[in-house]
Amino acid sequence: MRDPLAEPSDLIRSVSRALRVLEAVGRAPKGLTVKQIARRCELTVATTYHLVRTLAYEGYVIRREDGTYIVGLEVADRYRELVTAFRGPATVGEVLRRTALDSGYSHYLGRFVGGQVAITAGAEGARSPYLEDLVPGFDEGAHATALGKALLATLSVDQRFRYLREYGMRPFTPNTLVAVDAIEADLAAGDRRGMQLEMGQFRQGVACAAVLVTPDKDMERRVVLACALPAAEMMTSARVVRTRLLAAARSIADAINSDT
Question: Measured between alpha carbons, how far is 255 from 243 in angstroms, rounded to an integer?
């Protein structure tokens, strides 16, 4: 949600409106008419028509025969570019895929992007439950995922408090920790364990574990590695998971450093 108090004095309103139109269309897989877009964006029909025509010309929306508009293929191109930029060197992706293949578990990289915890790369493993939300760009649930906890653990207590206050602690499942004191105790246990862990806090029946790949004074350069697996398997193989995660983290750190 945009903070109206943070609106820049030199905001170009036509660009802002065009992005609002694109967001509205993106949230409607069945498509929207110009009038529907105008209502949802609180714009006049005339203004919306001009914005939609421009977005269609640039390929960011597509007009269908029934007069509705859907997201255009240029959006997919921008997403692929985002995935490539987030992932970093190609060798990082190769290590991530090999780790997922060898272990059978889905693995994810995460870091702070614009001060917010986000997944930046992922590789699916055949033995892990499919988690459709965990794709590059996913920036919710830092308090409920091991990946998010591993990054939150690198912050000071005050920084964590401000982060959790700003982004909230949505209860994804009945097991999700939604109190700051509980989060602090959980992170402390993870530090002692040498691996941040969650069991059914993001998705029931699924467990995630995460370790730090690269520490850095600059929070945006800190990287963590996480894996997801059935909760029942985590209960019997947590030590093995930690050993494999730490080994994979070293390989990814080497891949990152070799490109700098």
Answer: 19
pLDDT, tens digit (0-9, with 9 covering 90-100), for 167-206: 999 999 999 999 999 999 999 999 999 999 999 999 999 9
Centre a 10 Å sphere on the Cβ of residue 189 and count the other Cβ atoms it contains: 11
Q: How many CB atoms lie within 10 A of CB 243?
A: 13
Helix axes 45-58, 34-41, angle to 10 degrees: 110
- Determine if residue 71 is left, alpha or beta; phi over 0 gives left, psi from -120 to 50 gives alpha, anything else beta: beta
Give dist(CA 37, CA 69) in Å, integer. Answer: 9
